[in-house]
Design a protein that fits this description.
single chain; 2 domains
């Protein structure tokens, strides 16, 4: 198994453990994360979604367009603080 959707009632605990183990093995060989298939919006996930240069560019754009971080209930890119180039 390379991946699974954990639709309520479809996977039991053993199936969920199998899917997680398969994904961890795949993820260990990878270098990124596809955000639409994550179950978390934690900062650690967001940092893995983008290369550093892209994250810096997105943070600078966020500072220009959403400095108050109003749009944050997602895979949040935090605005670059004042005085930082990114």
């Amino acid at each position: 198994m390379a991946g699974a959707f954990d639709i309520p009632g479809m996977l039991d605990d053993a199936g969920r453990a199998e899917a997680n183990a398969a994904w961890e093995a795949i993820e260990a060989k990878g270098s990124g994360v596809y955000g639409n298939f994550t179950v978390s919006t934690a900062d650690t996930i967001v940092q893995r979604m983008y290369p550093p240069a892209t994250m810096a560019r997105l943070a600078a754009i966020k500072r220009a367009w959403d400095p108050g971080n109003v749009f944050c209930r997602n895979h949040n890119v935090k605005p670059v603080p004042d005085g930082h180039a990114g």
